[in-house]
Amino acid sequence: MDNLDDVLPSHQLHVKHFFEQIKNMLMDQNSDEQPSLSLSAETSLSVQMAISFQNTRAAFMAFADAVIPSTLGALDLRIDDYMVWILDHFVSIQGEWSVKNIPLSSQTARILDIAAYQLITSGNIKVTPDYSSNPDGGPFLALSPNDRFEAIRLLENQQVDLEALPPPYRNNGGLVKNVITSLHQMVMFGYYSEWFSLGSTRQAYPEDHRIERQPFLWESLNYPGPSYGYRAVRGFLVDKFSE
Q: Which residue has the higher pLDDT, 212 or 8?
């Protein structure tokens, strides 16, 4: 991180100051007198400016990789794309007059980055953040997997500055907790549902899905596939029945 101009692509040079803040904080961690750092409206604006499509995807890549490590193929199966698709198409928010579906992937990536930034500035990280692996990523991606879970825990326990979060999460701790919990479920469902085998139709609506690749995860787990009679009554677990 010594030369941010070399690390950041041209379309993200405007976030140089944001990363310089983190760099300076890390250099001062071992000093006797540390400045008091907290999230503010200015910090929230810096994070907002840093967000791009690549940054959004990077945040969900980091989340999926933390829940299901790369050695098990979560990123190879593009589970991050699954999370973005679900958040942008199937999350309903109660509006003033009705329930509406609104895209939430960008805002959700931002709250992950804000929580990561708060964790970094608190000095409670176990491993120094690494921005070199993916220059398009934000603070959440830069964290180690264990530290990512700490940032997630801050959101789950509402230990972040809710005022600094973007709408519709701002000052809405219940929504934050519900969505973060759902992210865990999205990773597991996308992974074990063989979503990747849908090929070019995986980002289509369910009625347009087609199996285009040979499912391999079910085979590796010896899962026989769905049985459509599971919900039917198959008898009662009794040795003898009498009226």
A: 212
According to DSSP, residue 209 is labeled -
Cα-Cα-Cα-Cα dihedral sign, residues 144, 146, 151, 152: positive
- Identify the CA nearest to 160 among candidates 152, 49, 183, 128: 152
C-beta separation of 50 from 105 below 8 A: no
CB atoms closer than 10 angstroms to residue 108: 27
- Burial-class residue 73 by CB neighbours within 10 Å (0-12, 13-18, 19+): middle
Span of 3-7, 134-138, 212-216 with lowest mean pLDDT: 3-7
Angle between helices 79-89 and 105-122 (to 10 degrees): 120
Sorted by where each begins, the domain ranges of the chain are 21-28+37-192
To which residue do tokens 């030369």 refer?
Answer: 3
SS3 174: helix
Distance CA(89)–CA(104), nearest Å, equals: 9
Q: How far apart are the first and last CA of the chain?
A: 79
In the predicted structure, residue 221 carries a pLDDT above the cut 80: no
pLDDT tens across 159-178, in order? 999 999 999 999 999 999 99
pTM of the model: 0.70
Decide: helix, strand or coil at residue 179. Answer: helix
**Residue 222: per-residue pLDDT:** 79
Mean pLDDT for the chain?
A: 76
Give the Cβ contact number of residue 220 at 10 Å: 9
Whole-angstrom distance, CA of residue 78 vs CA of residue 86:
13
* HSE-up of residue 89 (Cα within 13 Å, Cβ side): 10
